[in-house]
TrEMBL record:
<dbReference type="InterPro" id="IPR001267">
    <property type="entry name" value="Thymidine_kinase"/>
</dbReference>
<feature type="binding site">
    <location>
        <begin position="9"/>
        <end position="16"/>
    </location>
    <ligand>
        <name>ATP</name>
    </ligand>
</feature>
<feature type="active site" description="Proton acceptor">
    <location>
        <position position="88"/>
    </location>
</feature>
<keyword id="KW-0067">ATP-binding</keyword>
<dbReference type="GO" id="GO:0005524">
    <property type="term" value="F:ATP binding"/>
</dbReference>
<keyword id="KW-0547">Nucleotide-binding</keyword>
<protein>
    <recommendedName>
        <fullName>Thymidine kinase</fullName>
        <ecNumber>2.7.1.21</ecNumber>
    </recommendedName>
</protein>
<dbReference type="Pfam" id="PF00265">
    <property type="entry name" value="TK"/>
</dbReference>
<keyword id="KW-0237">DNA synthesis</keyword>
<feature type="binding site">
    <location>
        <begin position="170"/>
        <end position="173"/>
    </location>
    <ligand>
        <name>substrate</name>
    </ligand>
</feature>
<feature type="binding site">
    <location>
        <position position="182"/>
    </location>
    <ligand>
        <name>Zn(2+)</name>
    </ligand>
</feature>
<dbReference type="GO" id="GO:0046104">
    <property type="term" value="P:thymidine metabolic process"/>
</dbReference>
<feature type="binding site">
    <location>
        <position position="147"/>
    </location>
    <ligand>
        <name>Zn(2+)</name>
    </ligand>
</feature>
<keyword id="KW-0808">Transferase</keyword>
<comment type="subunit">
    <text>Homotetramer.</text>
</comment>
<keyword id="KW-0418">Kinase</keyword>
<dbReference type="InterPro" id="IPR027417">
    <property type="entry name" value="P-loop_NTPase"/>
</dbReference>
Amino acid sequence: MAKLYFYYSSMNAGKSTTLLQSSYNYRERGMNTLVYTAAIDNRYGVGKVTSRIGIEEQAQLFDQQTDLFSEIERINQQQHLNCILVDEAQFLTKAQVYQLSEVVDKLNIPVLCYGLRTDFQAELFEGSRYLLAWADQLEELKTICYCGRKANFVLRLNEQGEVIKEGDQIQIGGNDHYLSVCRRHYKEKMGC
């Protein structure tokens, strides 16, 4: 029986690497996968999932207007799909998370979503909020703070490496703009 999975973490925990390994495992067994990534995330090029360790795979793009259920249903009719994998799932809308649950419930295709749980202000992203609520299975991927504790928060940094406390929820960036930290260091740096 298919399930909706949400693998979440702060930045630099290996979400994209894990997604790419899962896709490879399916394809190695002769099964078809469909990989999605957010159109807004163009850090490593458009239309591909890339991990920090240098592996990548082509991906379909989604934006806020993408009807994921209709698109997946259409592709599945042309080529049987065994698994859907979604990178940058925090950028999904509530409606899209619902559509992915329909892929699981009506098309019986497992959906594996990978994304950040919270933003730099420790607020849930829309996609993450509904994946946490509606996923059949949740799994936290772990990374560590510079002090060695588990990092489950992320700080946004300016060009000088100083912490930014306000701004838009979404600003695409990598290690040069974000730092994963533990709760203690998050509160200390944010002045909480």
